[in-house]
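Why does residue order matter? Because the sequence determines the fold. Keep that principle in mind as you read this record.
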Amino acid sequence: MQKGFATLEIILFTLIIAVLATATLPNAARVIDRVALDYETKKLYTDLRFLQSLERMTNMESGHFTGDTINEIDRMIIYPNYYTLEKTANNKIYYEHYFSSGVTASEKSKTEPTWVVKFDEAGRISPSISDSLKLTSRFNKISYIVFDSVGRFRGGRGQ
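Structure:
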């Protein structure tokens, strides 16, 4: 009698754990997806700010504002699954970052996105972009980095 009761307790405990796992795992996957998208948006935004400040700093150090800088990094190229920071003159890649957890980058106007982001001596995006870069997660959550015609950019959630 006691042996049968212990088996029933184990079966009941296993059923409770299975029901709880079924209810929580999809939500955990969505939370992980949102966190990955937020991380990639903030990382891309931070690297854009770094590139912008690097352009301003090197122009102030060189003492002229002709667009000729002494820095080694002067543009960011954004592909669907990664982006690079590199020098235009020799196409040397100094930094490469691959998006994690199924996050992809795309523009609103193209299906195959490739963005080249450069900043002029005043820190404005050159050439002038007035659009947004869209980052999409595996579960189709969207985050944007919006560029305006003056050269400012900001990030935000789409959904």
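The chain has a mean pLDDT of 78.
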